[in-house]
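User: I'm putting together a teaching handout on how multi-component assemblies are represented. Below are the sequence lines for each component of a complex, exactly as they appear in our records. Could you produce the 3D structure of the whole assembly as structure tokens, so the students can see both representations side by side? Please keep the chain order the same as the input.
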Amino acid sequence: MAQLILKFKDIVLKDFDLAGDSKTIGREPGNDIVVENLLVSGYHARVDAAGKDYILTDLQSKNGTFVNGEQVTSKKLKNGDQILIGKHLLVFSLDPDEVEEAEKLTEETMFIGVAQGTAETPSQEPETPSLASTAISVERPAVLSFMSGGGAEYEITRKLVKLGKGAEADVQIGGFFTPKVAATISRRPTGYHLTPVGRAKIKVNDTQVKGSRRLREFDTIEVGPVKLQFYYKG
Amino acid sequence: MKIHSAGLTDIGRKRDNNEDTFYADDQVGLYIVADGMGGHRAGEVASSTVVSSVKDYMEAFHTSPVAKDAKEGNMSPAATAVSHSIELANRVVYQLSQDQGSYKGMGSTAAVAYMHGDTLVTANVGDSRIYLIRGDGIEQLTQDHTLLAEHMRKNPNWDPNSASIPMKHILVRAVGIHETVEADVYEIQPLPGDLILMCSDGLTDMLSDEEIHQAVLEGGTLEEVCDRLVEMANERGGLDNITAVLMLLQKDGKGLLQKLFGS
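Assistant: Of course. Below is the structure of the complete assembly, with chains in the same order as your input.
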């Protein structure tokens, strides 16, 4: 399998499987091979698969790309080629027995420090705030409003909210037959989920909940004598 | 709630070593899946260090909860402890990678599930997943910390096929890469009969959620279901290490007499 082995002062930092596709090399976090060093340009170079071969291309980097000591703009890579980018060395390594394997996708999992990279590279395009705000529903704060209790509101900030009569309940619900914890609302990636506890009978929009139920905006939840409405805040 | 579990990890068909580590303890109610990365066996070191650190911390919490795990912010003490256990794992892996040249840059994912009383705490960093299988539904309880998932959250209408780079395999959060890490933590109200599946991306890259769900619904023992999942991922190519941990949640088996007279 074709690999690029990233080295710095003879220490191997990481192996990258090329696995038949393209890799970009640079300082920006959007690269496949991130080299965090000021001598490295944001998008410095790339390696592209061309059939069984791999082609290295310098992306007009400030400090240049060198293969075995010679500056290159574009070059077909041979086994053992040493690519110098800033002070980092990438060694191109090919296993001849496994060349066919290189056509299959077996990318290594890699890590990039998005937060750090952004802080260090202010030239990066700013994120459009309008896009960032269209987050999934769970990141939107939600409230429970008491429909039969004078308009009081409970904002769901906890990961798991307990509704019931007991001291451990976050939302206090009175009523002689109300259990200590009658139901919970769990806030998770897919949204807010209501789950009755034990044998408590909970209705959402006049239908008894079996198992659990993902809440939709303006659902009406009936717990004992109390009716609550679920909606997103703001 | 009582839990029975089974777990399996497999090298897959393309890798030379298995960098996944998992842990399952039905007595404590603690389950961990970690998928390591880093050259020259460092990935294995990272994932096994995550498992041992989380395990040590949570076993201590389980025996005697300590004051610093008191209810923090919007989380229960148990959820706070799980969050702290991952922070500890991060410090240990990070320190190891700083101290030893060959471990430089190593890291790991972490998926942790902890059953405390009647609440299931789930937490993750990276792209190892936790699923809830309840009746005819399957729900991913975790969010992947990959460049792809992050981008999709911000741009829901974006076509992932237009990516020029394999964004699916680029993690934006991992244990041990930076000095600190924040895990996503959730608290779930489980029901008897719920199944929880924890797995590494070697499973989910090969199989869709629906295929995983169908394979679980085919039934058998928990061990048989884990075997089936791993085998299916291998048949699809087994490009990465594959780990599956499956838990079945059941009512406490106390009889009526025990309930009446205590136990």
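A couple of points students might notice: The two ends of chain B are 16 Å apart (CA to CA). Chain B has a mean pLDDT of 89.
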